[in-house]
Amino acid sequence: MEKTAEINELKIVFIYDRFSCRREEDDPKDSILYFHPNSISVEKRVAICGQLMGVTHFFNDTFSSPRILTLANGKFALRNFGSQYVLALGCSSITSDWLLEKVN
């Protein structure tokens, strides 16, 4: 039962604006244009999005743009819309990469 609850919690969708937060005084929560589910606190949203976008920024600058990020407790499919917007779909770590690649 506990595993099912964990899987349900990992259904996350967000749209992130890379250009909204460029200066130190900019508020990171302004970069999150859409986030689902609404039950996740603003602080946790900022933490999730900030960490994922930080890793994505590193990969963009160092290697290439990642399409799927696999973490210890979930996977995120990422799709870029130009250089400004990112759509992220988060799900359980047991979800097939094949399915997540369909987002791209």
Major sheet strand order = 2-1-5-4-3
Unreliable spans are: 1-9
Helix content: 25-40%
Q: How does the major sheet shape up? A: 5 strands, antiparallel
User: Which radius of gyration do the C-alpha atoms yield?
Assistant: 14 Å
Overall 3D shape: globular
Structural class by SSE content: alpha+beta
Report mean pLDDT, rounded to a whole number: 86
Number of helices: 3
Binned strand content: 25-35%
Strand/helix succession: HEEHEEEH
Alpha carbon gap, first and last residue: 32 Å
The counted number of beta strands is 5
List the helices and strands and how they pair.
Elements: H1 2-9, E1 12-17, E2 32-36, H2 42-62, E3 68-71, E4 74-81, E5 85-91, H3 97-101
Antiparallel strand pairs: 1-2, 1-5, 3-4, 4-5
Question: Would you write up a description of this structure?
Answer:
- The protein is built from 3 helices and 5 strands.
- The protein is of the alpha+beta class and 104 residues long.
- It is globular, with a radius of gyration of 14 Å.
List key phrases describing it.
104 residues, alpha+beta, disordered N terminus
What's the quick description here?
With 104 residues, the chain is an alpha+beta fold. The protein has helices at 2-9, 42-62, 97-101; strands at 12-17, 32-36, 68-71, 74-81, 85-91.
